[in-house]
Amino acid sequence: MSDKKVILDQVLSDEKLINSLAFKDRVYKDEPIIRTASQLKPLSTPRKIKEMKDIMYSPAAYWKTSAWLFYSQGKFMEDYEDSFSYSEDFTKYYPCYRDLSVEQLRGYFTWRKNVRQNKIEKAPLPFVYIYIYELLNCIGAETPEEGFKLLKYFSDEYAKIDDSIKKYTESWLVDFIVYYELSPELANDMSDIRHDKALLTLMHWNERSDDQLFEAISELSSYQFQRSLYYVSYPDEFRTVLIRSFIKISEFFSEKRKLPLFTKLFGNIVECSHNMFQSAVFYDRQSLRSCEYSLSEIHTYTCKNGKWSCRKIYGNRSRNGRLGDLVKAVDSLLRKKKDFRHKLSCTDVSKTTLKLIQNVIDEYYEELHRKEARKITIDLSKLSGIRRAADITREKLLVDEEEAQDTVCAAEVEKTHEIADIPDNAPLEADEKEFLIALLYNGDIAAAAKKCGKMPSILADSINEKMFEVFSDNIIDFSEDIPQLIEDYTDELKEMFHKE
């Protein structure tokens, strides 16, 4: 027996090995292998897909780029549709048609057919990006305008399924507008352009309304004051002080500093090279053109012999920390001024800025104080005392008038309205008489009221009250804030009060 045979027998007869493998208890038998229909039957390749793949091996493709190949194959398959069930998921970076198997290609063209019928369903990300690349190259669209509309619609709808595509499609949509020279208004609702509009508002602060400034600061500030307890408690005061503070500091920088406040907060406009449709598969069919395009005065593009550059304010394109510090300082100083229960520290702005904000706050509350002081209040509790004093004065005047003048003839007193025993003069004080005469003879009622230091409404109420016993009615109507004599009583009143 050879040495190999001996060693093998020893290994196979080892008791530990036998127990660990449990050979004695294990029973083996034939089992069927389950396979799908696609595994049993080879997948057929449609003729159109075969022809598309042949483009890759054509002599024209030898010196061309992968972007050219994608565009050529995409135009060739522009109207192709399939009906193939594909449910697997897979991942590929910068996917192209050449990277997909026949199954994947058939699954893609089936899914694309449904998308074009507005049936947008979740799919492997390579499918999603290939479709987006097609639209960027205007494959499947007769005009750039139609291509933009399809791209925008798909981007918005598929983002509801997977919002990861937004970080690419937002910038690609802007590039699409610029590259195909579409209307700048198509970009109005995109975050990058909204950011530019807010920047323009703060740049031209002296030409914008308070509402526009407030909205721009709200959008650009890293300190989101809408969550502030003070703002929630006193929104109008916070808003007014914030806007005035921004204007005051902007004025200070314009007068005392070399650079405006806007530049300190956001920096300068800079021109940098720009890669059109970055990270996408895009075939530039106008690679040697030269042009200029402007989205706004602070966001422009230039192309020279196919090389693109972009001129805008770079850096952080979201919320601004320096502006946030300024807004936080306003919140902090307002809380201190009002002795708000929750204090807020602020150490990230200069002493000059703090002083300017404090001056605005002091001026604002001084203005409120002056407005409060000018308000005229009427103590209704004192009206009864005034009425009693008026009654005493009226009685005295009646006695004096009766002694000084003859009794009015009864025939002259009888009028359309029944008036009992009208004296030659009414129980009015001198200033009330002067005011009533001004009303009767179209005089200067404002001057008459000012002369006695009383408001026209007070004089009218007093006259109506004193003459009520004579006419049993009000003689002055003050319902429209302008005293007017009731026409029915003007003749009687003119007999009682003669113009001097």
Model description:
There is one protein chain. The chain is mostly helical. It folds into 3 domains: 47-183, no CATH class; 191-266 and 319-374, no CATH class; 380-496, no CATH class. It is built from 22 helices and 6 strands. It has helices spanning 3-12, 15-21, 37-40, 47-55, 66-76, 102-116, 125-136, 144-159, 166-179, 191-203, 210-220, 229-233, 235-256, 261-266, 321-337, 351-374, 383-404, 410-413, 430-440, 445-452, 456-471, 490-496; strands at 270-273, 291-296, 299-304, 307-312, 476-477, 484-485. The strands form 2 sheets. A 4-stranded antiparallel sheet has the order 1-4-3-2. Strands 5-6 form a two-stranded antiparallel ribbon. β2 and β3 (299-304) form a beta hairpin. The chain is elongated. The chain starts with a helix and ends with a helix.
Characteristics:
500 residues, four-stranded antiparallel sheet, mainly alpha
Biggest β-sheet description: 4 strands, antiparallel
Order of helices and strands: HHHHHHHHHHHHHHEEEEHHHHHHHEEH
Percent range for helical residues?
A: 40-55%
State which percent range the strand residues make up. 5-15%
Number of domains: 3
Topology (elements, then pairings):
Elements: H1 3-12, H2 15-21, H3 37-40, H4 47-55, H5 66-76, H6 102-116, H7 125-136, H8 144-159, H9 166-179, H10 191-203, H11 210-220, H12 229-233, H13 235-256, H14 261-266, E1 270-273, E2 291-296, E3 299-304, E4 307-312, H15 321-337, H16 351-374, H17 383-404, H18 410-413, H19 430-440, H20 445-452, H21 456-471, E5 476-477, E6 484-485, H22 490-496
Antiparallel strand pairs: 1-4, 2-3, 3-4, 5-6
